Amino acid sequence: MKKSFGTVVRADARHSDHVTKALNELASQSDRSAAMVATAILDLVLTEALKSYLHTDTNIAAHFFAADGPVGDLGAKVDLAFLVGLVSETSWRDLVTIRNICNTFAHKMEISSFRAKSAAAQCNKLRIAEIRTFDVADKPKEWPKGRWMSVENRKQVLSDPRERFLLTVAVLCSGLATSRNRKVPPPTF
């Protein structure tokens, strides 16, 4: 059965259709592949979101975000996103956990499933999908502020480690892809 990771309810996000489509394509992939590709997609969306918070200088940005640059590593991007106020503490913790899960699959060949004890335990730490999703059957009467996604069989999805991981990535990508009206502050000197 092919899973769907929800739909963007507030449609002001850039690239949301492409991200959702790419994540849905992971349904037929192994757990290892799904974890690594989903994390790579999240890394790309996070990079784009961070760039929207910074002054536009393509030469500096290219160096800054290059693989060997100061913020080329996903961990550095995750921390920078929190420090500049792009993500909440809950989202930051989930981003750190996602990076750790990806590293588990990449560096521990004996772990090949989200159901493995250590991978499942890490997935159970993910929280933003609990906060920012609702079940299609329980559509809210009044929309709270912020980004929300609908999910079919939400309770079942959140109870499965793989689905919880992929839904969390989808929620984070959706929130990060939201267009922002934030201006870079003018130089003070």
Task: Provide a quick synopsis of the model.
By secondary structure, the chain is mainly alpha-helical. It contains 9 helices and 3 strands, in the order βαααααααββαα.
Question: Could you explain how this protein is built, in words?
Answer:
- The chain is mainly α.
- It has one domain.
- The protein has nine helices and three strands.
- The chain has helices spanning 16-24, 31-51, 58-65, 74-83, 89-107, 117-123, 128-131, 154-159, 161-176; strands spanning 7-8, 133-135, 149-151.
- Strands 1-3-2 form a three-stranded mixed sheet.
- The longest helix has 21 residues, at 31-51.
- It starts with 6 loop residues before the first strand and ends in a 13-residue tail after the last helix.
Quickly count the helices.
9
Strand content: under 5%
- Major β-sheet profile: 3 strands, mixed
Helix-and-strand structural type: mainly alpha
- C-alpha end-to-end distance: 58 Å
Ranges where pLDDT stays below 50 over 5 or more residues in a row are: 7-13
**Any idea what the shape is?**
globular
**N-to-C SSE series?**
EHHHHHHHEEHH
Whole-number radius of gyration?
Answer: 17 Å
Mean pLDDT: 85
Number of DSSP strands?
Answer: 3
| Share of helix, binned | 40-55%
Strand order of the largest sheet: 1-3-2
| Count of domain modules | 1
